[in-house]
Structure formats: structure tokens, C-alpha cells
């Protein structure tokens, strides 16, 4: 059982991040054929389901990375069979909830009965709901007309304080905290407007906050909830549309919303329910994963997880919305642009593939087989000494790093092929990063079960990958006296490309820190500690995020 836990844990911890839907009131019809449950049992099971199971099996239990668990299937299997499956897991990736010690026998029995009931349906979220949640805190006409502070705003870092529902804005030059801004719960990502003035963050609870970096003390100017659960936000970047529009994708309801870029006023909601790419069958819950703005056309690139489709949404006329639907592969997740910004590289994580999408031509360039469960974040771009420009991803499910050629003109032989596979410290990697001014490549492993690996980072010299990696003991450098996880997560460069920042992510009641490394010497440069820095996870440099530099 111990071995099994080691194998399944990185994925399990990753996908069981907790859903805000656990506390939503839901409609429930009773299924007379299912085993009896009291209301209290049902409510408890529903909460556990949304916290631990929905990430893989879906809100409606139609299946995603995990198998479908609708009553037509589960009733036939019966309580005893389901209990064994929940208790012991499966080699296909189902965690062993009982033998790992996460569930006791009673909870296993509860969940086996629960998944034979009809799935409760969370409420939808309409334009009216959005408008009710919308707060224009400082209208555009009351905002500064020029930058009113002395910060070098291009080098500010927006750092998620996951469990407190805040972001810390940190001055990258002085390493001082500028402000702690109230946001939604567990902000997933930060993105910038084209001008670099406005910062947009989205919480797991689908709350978007828009922060004006020109204010004397940068703070919220607008807020909206675009659904009940979400992960992605971005802004229009094409010439002529700078700072005009914002877009957010939601997990529930499955839809994306286009808003005004200076106020977050919602303009248009588009549902993503529809047919899957492979079997072409209806899916009621295709969640919106990563979104990126094209620099080549007035388009947003919207990646729909369960249907395996990448949508190029032309935002130039919202009243006559044109969408190019590109067939990619199922379970699209995270991704980023190549160094020329022409190609979007997105991980279809459970298909073990990267899709390369040509944003100039509006078509799929290739589907590329990589390692097990690619997880690039936005990936890393650098020039390989032999193969030219490459984009790289690390993996959640194995220790490799796949380098993919991205230069069809200059290096046609290598384009859209894995030109080299580099061995890293281990599996459980989430993020990888490089910078045009650096010759280093950083690979984290925060979800590796071995604390030695989850608390350190591997660095490569991209000019000599064969030399292998150097390990930087980031958590040790943080000098935290508390015990606990201290996961080292997400390398992020400063604007100059000569420093790399890491979060040392501890539990809510333990001390965390940010560690800054000198990129030239690979030596410790600074440790940022503050009682307000609780559960830091992602951190985003304004300039690099604004210009898609990675
Ligand atoms: Fe993330 C990116 C979804 C777990 C931190 N994460 C993304 C993106 C998606 C996503 C769709 C791409 C957004 C984009 O670019 O537009 N993440 C999910 C999940 O569904 C998942 C697996 C489970 C969950 O319940 O949320 C999950 N993610 C995590 C974590 O456990 C992390 C480490 C901490 C947390 O907040 O829960 C985490 N995800 C991040 C970060 C990014 C991200 C820091 C942005 C990377 C970047 O460089 O852009």
C-alpha cells in the first residue's frame, strides 16, 4: 500500500485541490434504486465528492481523467464492488483512499452508496448572476491619468496567497511588499493587460479582481464572479484592442465570458457543452482550461478540456462571434506560446500529448507525443545548440523533460518533433522556466513524494544539457524552522532575466517564504519572509507575463 501511495499521490494531491462547489446549494432528485442515505449522509458525501473526487470524475460524474460514475454504471456494480475500488484504487490511477489512510471504512461505504445516487446538479450562472456580483470599485474616470507611484511596475511580482484569498504585490527591485490585495479564494493565475497597467487575477471560486498598478498604492478597481469555479483569465493583446477586453473561462458552469477590459462589465457568455473530439459524443461538462491571447489576430485561444477542442474566438465583433474550432486531444490543460508567439503549445495531459497550434494560419500544426502527463505551466523557450529554437515541458507522471522543435522555417527536420528528452530529478513536476537573457532552464518537482525533490529545483545549462542538472536546495535556503511540506513551486524570472523567484509553499499554519536566486551564479540572493506571506504558490512578473516571455 505504501508503494502504491507513492505512485498515485502526486496526481491525487494535484487533482483533489478542493472545489468551491462543495458549499453550493444544489438540486437533488432521489433515485429509488440506489441504496438508502439520510440527508446528513448525502450532504457529507457530496462535500467529500467535491473536495476529493470531482477533479477527476467531473461535477456531473460523466468522467474526465477518471472513469464516468453515473448511476447507469454504478448501480450495476453495486456497493460491495465499489467499496473495494475506492478502498484499494486501481493501477489506472484511481487512488487507494482507504489503504492510504485518507478515508476510513465508514467513509468508503458512504462514498460507495453516494455514487449510486443521481449526481446533484449545481446551479447555472447567468448574465443576471454576473451583473449582481459585479462591483465597479473605482470607475475609469476616477482613476489616475498617469502612474501615481514610484514603483518600477514592470518588475512587480503578483504572488498568490492561496489559502487566505489574497495576492501579495511585491516590488521586484526592493523585495518589499507593496500591498496585500483581497481577491477570490486560491487565486490560480495572474495576467496583465496589454499595456501592463492592469493586473487580472482569478480565484478558484471564479471571482476576478482587476488591480490598477498606476494607483499610489495598487489595489482593486473592479470585481466580478463569472461562475462557481474557474481557473483562467486573459486580456486582448492584438494591435488596436490593447486593454479593451478581458476573458475568463470557468470550470462550472462550463462556459467562457468576455468582459470590458477597463471595468469587467460582462458582455457575452458562451457555453462550451458539446461533442468530444474523438468519439463525438455529447459531454455536459467541458471545463475551460488555459486561455491565451493571440498577438497575430484579434483572437482568444480557449482550450476546452473534456471535449479536446481548442477554440480561436475572434473578438473583433462580439455580435457576430466567429470561432474556429480546432480538433486537438482530450483533457487540454496548461500551455504557452513559442518564442515567436506564433504557435500555442498546449498539454493534453491525460493523452500524453502536446498540441501545437498555428495562430497565424488558425490550424493545428501537430500533435506531439511526449512523456507521461505533460505539465508545462506556460513552458520554456530556448535555443538548443544543435536543434535551434525549442519549447520544453516537464511532466507530472515521469522524470523527463521533452524538448520540441518550434522553428519550421529554419529547422524543418526538427519542427514539431521531440528533438531531445532530458532526464530530470523525478516526476511530480508542475513548472519549467527559462528566459531569453539566460542560458538556464529551471524545473521544479513540488508534487514528488520525496521531500528532497519537492523541496529543491533542478537547473540545466541549455548550452550543455548533456552535463545534467545542478540541484538548488531552495527550501533549505529559505531557513524555515517549522516542519511540514515546504514545496518549492514555480520558477519565475524578474524583468531583467538575471534573478529567479520561487515559492516555498508550506501549510496555512506554518511559515512560508519566497526565495530569490542569482541566475548567473546560481547562489542565493534573497529570502522574503513576512507573516502575511501565507501559502504562496504561483507568482507572476508583470513584464514577463505582459509580453509572454518565458
Ligand atoms: Fe493549476 C495553471 C488548472 C492544481 C497552480 N492550472 C493552470 C491552468 C489550469 C489549471 C487550467 C492554466 C491557466 C491558464 O494559463 O490560462 N490546476 C488546475 C486544476 O484543475 C488542478 C489540477 C486541480 C485543482 O483543483 O485546481 C490544478 N494548480 C494546481 C495546484 O495544486 C497549484 C500548484 C496550486 C493551486 O493554486 O491550487 C496550481 N496552476 C497553478 C499555477 C498556474 C496554473 C501557478 C499558472 C502557471 C503559469 O505559469 O501560467
UniProtKB/TrEMBL annotation:
Compartment list: Periplasm
Stored SUPFAM superfamilies: C-terminal (heme d1) domain of cytochrome cd1-nitrite reductase (SSF51004), Cytochrome c (SSF46626)
Keywords: Electron transport, Heme, Iron, Metal-binding, Oxidoreductase, Periplasm, Signal, Transport
Domain Cytochrome c span(s) in chain numbering: 40-119
Cofactor: heme; heme c
Catalytic activity: nitric oxide + Fe(III)-[cytochrome c] + H2O = Fe(II)-[cytochrome c] + nitrite + 2 H(+); A + NH4(+) + H2O = hydroxylamine + AH2 + H(+)
Protein EC: 1.7.2.1, 1.7.99.1
GO molecular function, one term: heme binding
Entry keyword Transport: yes
Keyword Oxidoreductase: yes
Pfam families cross-referenced by the UniProt entry: Cytochrom_D1, Cytochrome_CBB3
A single Gene Ontology CC term: periplasmic space
Assembly mode: Homodimer.
Record-given protein name: Nitrite reductase
Organism: Ideonella aquatica
Lineage: Bacteria, Pseudomonadati, Pseudomonadota, Betaproteobacteria, Burkholderiales
